[in-house]
Amino acid sequence: MTTKAPKTRDYFAEMYVAGILADCGWNIYFPRRDKGFDFIITKSTPNGIVIRPVQVKGKYPEKIKTNKSYYGFTGKLTEVNEEMALIIPFFSTDHSTTSPDLIAFMPFSQIKNTPKGHKCHPACFSNGISGERRDFKKFFGSPGIQLMESCDWKDETI
Fold it and tell me: Which one of 5, 38, 43, 99 is separated from 19 by 20 to 30 angstroms, measured CA to CA?
């Protein structure tokens, strides 16, 4: 019996992000049961050990997606913590690519409460491709990963 593959690649996004973080020297700890955080990361820094709970929320737009000046995660987070990282991999509408175009590493201070749950929109979306919003550039890619080592991570502002 074969099972049909899911339309979204959420588990792929989690593993991809974990691999990038491991390449940057972070230790990755997966929970026995996924009831909140996707994994916990730790890293020894000159200021001590940094511990971050992580939730990964991949964005997988369809070809019919319209342009947006604000783009990212809107929904319920099963767990929140002021030291957490909300990591958002942004894929393009061309589903033939095997990796996200962008990855945002967002601190708790950039997650807003809304009537629909939580919101964090560090990107924009135009012509099938995600882009960094100007004020959020420091949260993307290598600079964003390095910023997670900061003792003041939870309070980072744009």
Answer: 5
